[in-house]
Write a structure and sequence with these properties.
alpha/beta, Isopropylmalate Dehydrogenase, 10-stranded mixed β-sheet, two-stranded antiparallel sheet, globular, binds NADP nicotinamide-adenine-dinucleotide phosphate, binds magnesium ion
């Protein structure tokens, strides 16, 4: 069989621990035999980030901006324990943070669903995608703990000399204070990324804040979304999809009673909390994909989970692990599909569809990794190691591609 051709390379970002092991296995079993793979390779494994003073992460982010499509393996975000484990020169920042700020992107997380794994919420029939605003609010806030009475004020000094001051609270005793911000630019980018992604998936988009309480702060989010939506209104009508705004508590209630099949745009904190709830309710973190979309249409695909450290330590002791590669495979298929669409390569798009199809065939026949075995219902699952599971997917992929 002739290998499927590519024209523009995909930015390939390698990573750490168990996912780095899976990364190579996925390439060897499911990609290289079938695709004439073109990538620009960046090793974002922690040793190489340390060696390059984290320049490699910056370079990979810039390459994604240039080439338009990237695929990333999970990476370690160093903490104090990793400093000693890897003998690091510095506690390097989260690579995802660096890539996100370079691309000014929004993260969309979607569960991969199969008939034998029932969501904890019985009404949910279709996946719910969470779009999390990845800038500002409490994540870029400052705070103070006070130990005496006094006055807390919020002050803004404009470059023009304009000054605004409001009293936050007359503190009668010890307490806590917090100051946070967001920017019109970031909120506007978020809105564009959301509306563009809704159009590309042809799904409704919901957005919610607490603008009845935070009248100015959340009110600004609501107003910017309304303003940006004007640019998309006609295309939404044409695609038969809608933009729906409501209050966050109303949104939570409606999400629980919905059938799914839409995108839920969330402010930073809401997205942090709700994405964990939604992913757990759909089944497993190992079945959650993540894509970073920039307002100018650049895409970076990855699994939502981390480097699966506990499994890696077992692997290092020579044990065969049953780590789930599905979300990482879907990161690759997402990148191939997008590259194929951008470069007008229908064969590459078809390969992406068949790769995902082969994963579904395998799972629907009951072959699964350990994390899924206990979740499957109405089927007798057979637990496989990662290597056996990938071989089973390959067998089905070969059949599909030969058909
Ligand atoms: P994690 O790697 O997602 O793993 C947490 C647990 O979830 C695992 O121990 C495992 O449970 C289960 N799990 C996750 N993915 C799985 C898979 N593919 N197959 C089977 N089980 C899976 O999170 P973590 O242990 O908190 O973080 C480990 C490292 O990953 C950290 O250094 C962190 O910085 C990094 N991280 C990176 C990213 C990213 O690059 N996007 C995201 C999150 C975390 P059991 O052990 O019970 O089997
Ligand atoms: Mg969270």
């Amino acid at each position: 069989m002739e290998k499927i051709k590519m024209t523009t390379p995909i930015v390939e970002m390698d990573g750490d621990e168990m996912t780095r092991i899976l990364w190579k296995m996925i390439k060897d079993e499911l990609i290289l035999p079938f695709v004439d793979l073109k990538t620009e390779y960046y090793d974002l494994g922690l040793p190489n980030r340390d060696k390059t003073g984290d320049q490699v992460t910056v370079d990979a982010a810039l390459a994604t901006k240039k080439l338009g499509v990237g695929v990333k393996c999970a990476t370690i975000t160093p903490n104090a324990q990793r400093m000693t484990e890897y003998n690091l020169h510095q506690m390097w920042k989260s690579p995802n943070g660096t890539i996100r700020s370079t691309l000014d992107g929004t993260v969309f997380r979607t569960p991969i669903t199969i008939p034998s794994i029932h969501p904890a919420v019985k009404f949910w029939k279709k996946p719910i995608t969470i779009a999390r605003h990845a800038y500002g609010d409490v994540y870029k806030s400052v705070d103070i703990v006070t130990d005496e009475p006094g006055v807390a004020k919020l002050v803004f000094e404009g470059e023009s000399g304009k000054r605004e001051e409001v009293v936050v609270q007359q503190m009668k005793g010890p307490g806590v204070l917090q100051g946070m911000h967001n920017t019109d630019k970031s909120i506007r980018s978020f809105a564009h990324a959301c509306f563009q992604y809704a159009l590309s998936l042809k799904q409704d988009i919901w957005f919610a804040t607490k603008d009845t309480i935070a009248k100015k702060y959340d009110g600004r989010f609501k107003a910017i979304f309304e303003e940006v939506f004007e640019e998309y209104k006609a295309r939404f009508e044409e695609a038969g999809i809608t933009y729906f705004y409501t209050l966050i508590d109303d949104a939570v209630a409606r999400v629980m009673r919905s059938e799914g099949g839409f995108i839920w745009a969330c402010k930073n904190y809401d997205g942090d909390v709700m994405s964990d709830m939604v992913s757990t309710a759909f089944g497993s973190l190992a079945m959650m994909t993540s894509v970073l979309v920039s307002p100018d249409g650049k895409y970076e695909y990855e699994a939502a989970h981390g480097t699966v450290t506990r499994h890696y330590y077992k692997y290092l002791q020579g044990e065969e692990t049953s780590t789930n590669p599905i979300a990482t495979i879907f990161a690759w298929s997402g990148a191939f599909r997008k590259r194929g669409e951008m470069d007008n390569l229908p064969e590459l798009v078809k390969y992406a569809d068949q790769l995902e199809g082969a994963c579904f065939d395998t799972l629907n026949e009951g072959y699964a990794t350990k994390d899924l075995v206990n979740l499957m219902e109405g089927i007798t699952p057979k637990m496989l190691t990662s290597a056996q599971f990938l071989a089973a997917i390959r067998e089905r992929l070969e059949k599909r591609l030969a058909a």
